[in-house]
Write a structure and sequence with these properties.
six-stranded antiparallel beta sheet; alpha+beta; elongated; about 230 residues
Length: about 230
């Protein structure tokens, strides 16, 4: 009877009921086998749950990236493109501020082209940067993102930031991603949050992909202006 009960349990699990557990109390090897069987079922259920979560998360990422791609392809205006990206990123990540700086050949500097703040107190006065100047200039020069989970406990911020704009606005989280394609860096997009924050690897990957889509759209808008 215990062996038949265990065999029936295997069939129940195989049918998709991962909640089932074998309840066998024989005090011998059959009970030990049932215990190991239950441990295996626990592991299988946990793996299945983790897989479902990963699929759901990946689906959300793809949907978000699709929405950004759709938004930037609806216009050839740099202002419209920048505002559309900021709106989508704010909706997804809930940053307190988001700003886009683009390189201007006329002034040979990075100029603020679009911004969003949930509170006017977070507005900063620094609107232009030279390549290599401060954190934004360094990101554009290197083409690599910089993330400060909490500027108040990260010595890199004090060493690299010249304006101290994030600190003056009483914000904590600060991240800057380059807006680039494989061959060119167009500028940078920065994010702030009032509280310290840690970006997951998935969030970092998604923000990188969004920045790349923004770069492609900016490149297309530039070619359109040249054609005009």
């Amino acid at each position: 009877k215990p062996i038949k009960q265990l065999r029936d349990g295997v069939a129940t699990i195989g049918a998709g009921n991962l909640e089932h557990r074998a309840d066998i109390k024989t005090g011998d090897e059959i009970e030990e086998l049932a215990h190991e069987f239950n441990k295996m079922t626990d592991a299988l259920q946990n793996s299945y749950t983790t897989l479902e979560q990963k699929v759901e998360q990946r689906t959300q990422e793809i949907t978000a990236l699709y929405e950004v791609t759709t938004a930037v392809n609806q216009s050839l205006s740099l202002e419209d493109i920048s505002n559309a990206v900021i709106a989508k990123i704010t909706e997804i990540f809930r940053f307190d501020t988001t700003r886009i700086f683009l390189f201007s050949h006329e002034s040979e500097s990075l100029e603020l082209r679009a911004s969003f703040e949930v509170d006017p107190r977070y507005v900063t006065g620094k609107h232009t940067f030279k390549p290599g100047e401060g954190i934004i200039g360094r990101v554009v020069e290197s083409g690599e993102p910089m993330v400060f989970e909490d500027i108040h406990n990260d010595p890199r911020y004090s060493a690299l930031s010249r304006s101290k704009a994030t600190r003056n606005a009483q914000l904590s989280f600060f991240a800057v991603f380059p807006i680039k394609t494989h061959s060119r860096v167009f500028g940078a997009i920065l994010f702030n949050a009032l509280s310290p924050r840690k970006l997951t690897s998935d969030e970092t990957r998604l923000l990188t992909s969004m920045s790349e889509q923004l770069a492609v759209a900016i490149g297309k808008a530039g070619l359109f202006r040249q054609a005009e």
